[in-house]
Amino acid sequence: MADVIAKVKVMPVSPEVEKEALKEKLTKVVEENDAKCRGVSDEPLAFGLYTIYVMVEMEEREGGMDPIEQAMNDLEDVESAEVVELSLI
Questions:
Q1: First-residue to last-residue Cα distance in the chain
Q2: Are the C-beta atoms of residues 64 and 71 closer than 8 Å to each other?
Q3: CA distance linking residue 17 with residue 36, whole number of Å
Q4: Cβ proximity of 22 and 29 under 8 Å
Q5: What are the Translation elongation factor EF1B beta/delta subunit guanine nucleotide exchange domain coordinates in residue numbering (predicted)?
Q6: Backbone dihedral region of 39: left (phi > 0), alpha (psi from -120 to 50 degrees) or beta?
Q7: Domain range enclosing 71
């Protein structure tokens, strides 16, 4: 099977969420789901809000990114997480 790389857009629940702590939680979620975190970055949005992007590399498998995306959405400090790009490598 091929490997895939996905870009996941994560929105925190508020600007008060500690950015670095959330990045660590997201990285841990990726690693707990048998995938590799290839990068985590953030971009300012507006009024103190920011978006976090997580690059995930994993083997192509049934269910794809769904378990990782769901685990990210289940985090207390996450408003939403969604895959915005997906590509074979």
A1: 11
A2: no
A3: 24
A4: no
A5: 3-89
A6: left
A7: 3-88
